[in-house]
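Hey L., structure's done. Input below.
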Amino acid sequence: MSFIRMLCSVVLLGIAFSSTAQMAGASDSLRRQATRMESSFIRGDFVSYVHYFPPKLIEGMGGQDSVVKRLIESRNSVANMKYDSVGLDSLSAFINDSGLLQTTLAEHTSVTIGQNRVVFRTTLICLSPDNGVHWTFVEPGDEGGIYPLRVWMPEISTKLTIPFQPPPQIFPKQ
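Output:
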C-alpha cells in the first residue's frame, strides 16, 4: 500500500513540476514576443506590429493594410508627441479556455508631449493557440474595455479581467 502512495506522489509531483515548467516557458515566450511587438510600435514599424494582432481582429478592421494605414495616420495626427518607451509589468494567471492559453499583461508607455513626459498604464489581453509558443495581443482600450472585444472574439475568456486603468501621469520634462 505504501508503495502505491509513493508512486502516486511521484507522479503527482512530476505533473506539478511539468506544468510549472511549461507555464514558465509560456511566460518567457510571451514576454519576448510582447517586447518585440512593443519595440516595433516605438520604431513605427507597424507592419511588424500588426503581426502580433489576432487574425480575426485584423480581418474585422479591414485587413492588414487598413490597420497599418490607420496606425500611421494616428501617429502622424499628433505632431509634438514622441513615443519614448514601453515597459512590461505584471502578468496575470494563465487560463486555458476555448482552445487558447490566455492571460493579461500590464504595461506602461512613456511619451513626450511638448515639455512633458506622460506615462500611460494599460493592460494587454494575450492569446496563444499553441500553449504559449506563439502569442497575439489585444489592448481593450477605454471604450467599454474587454466586453466589446468579446463580440468580435467570443473566445476571449470571461475569466479574464482588466483592472482599473489609472489616468495618465504627467511629469515635467527635465
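Strands lie at 81-91, 95-97, 100-113, 116-128, 136-138, 169-172. Residues 81 and 166 are 20 Å apart (CA to CA).

-- N.
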